[in-house]
């Protein structure tokens, strides 16, 4: 696998139980909300936005990947996350609805504001 290769955990859509279990944790839900909104984010962008440690964010992203909700892409030393291509339409609809309903509420609005003001994001991307 090349340094910039993308990975999908599974070729099948995640089971409803896995989706709702992942959504039941606020850190994972906050990460997903930002990923839904921005399409793809680097781990360091999520660390900055959520104001949590890199190991904690990475642990939650690993659980999201194992649940089949996100896929990752390595670019040199950085790992970028996006929604998995295998999501069932109902899953994407659910995530979009949650994000739309809560985008202006804490902590989601606070996370979005911090990400928007993250220094050193040329062209809106992480450069750390």
UniProtKB/TrEMBL annotation:
Domain HTH arsR-type: 8-107
Keyword Transcription regulation appears in the UniProt entry: yes
Pfam hit, one: HTH_5
GO BP field: response to arsenic-containing substance
Source organism of the structure: Salinisphaera orenii MK-B5
Entry keyword annotation includes Transcription regulation: yes
Name under which the protein is recorded: ArsR family transcriptional regulator
Keyword tags: Arsenical resistance, DNA-binding, Transcription, Transcription regulation
Entry GO MF terms: DNA binding; DNA-binding transcription factor activity
